[in-house]
Design brief:
7 strands, redox-active center, about 170 residues, peroxidase, Glutaredoxin, 5-stranded mixed beta sheet, alpha/beta, Redoxin
Length: about 170
């Protein structure tokens, strides 16, 4: 599949893996059970910001990318965003722990796993190592309204929260 562009429909049958946050499993050492997250179905009638990155607990991702979205969350909600999700190649256990390490609770930001970078590869946006690339999408009721990939792995010019806020 070609990269997604504004005006495209979000692909059907997109399934990620994740561990829903729960208070009883809120400690970083507690493990939940991974389940499928049927993104196409869940996002059909919602305004969604999906940002993707190469890996959890990595320098740019942990120091700037995710914290920027955590900080911007109230402004994203003000602009009508129903779902904010971060996507990486890491498995659901790592993504869950990363969410807890960032003190994200509930469904404020979904920490989703792109197993084997299937989704990223399907849109041609996996990185050179075959992992999830760094990109961002805005999906409004099943239609892509923003789709940009970073020009380099450790650059934040089009997938950061500030860029998304400007695009909304």
């Amino acid at each position: 599949m070609a990269p997604l562009n504004p005006g495209d429909s979000f692909p059907e049958d997109v399934v990620f893996s994740y561990i829903p946050w729960s208070e009883d499993k809120g400690d970083i050492t507690a493990c939940g059970i991974p389940i499928n997250y049927y993104a196409s179905k869940e996002w059909k009638d919602k305004k969604v910001v999906l940002f993707a990155l190469p890996g959890a607990f990595t320098p740019v991702c942990s120091a700037r990318h995710v914290p920027g979205y955590i900080e911007a969350l109230p402004k994203l909600r003000e602009k009508g965003v129903d779902v904010v999700a971060v996507l990486a190649y890491n498995d659901a256990y790592v993504m869950s722990a990363w969410g807890k390490a960032n003190q994200v609770t509930g469904d404020d930001i979904l920490f989703l796993s792109d197993p084997e970078a299937r989704f990223s590869k399907s849109i041609g946006w996996a990185d050179e190592e075959g992992r999830t690339g760094r990109f961002a999408l805005i999906i409004d009721h099943g239609k892509v309204t923003y789709a940009k990939r970073e020009r380099e792995k450790n650059v934040l010019e089009v997938s950061d929260a500030e860029s998304i806020l400007k695009a909304l």
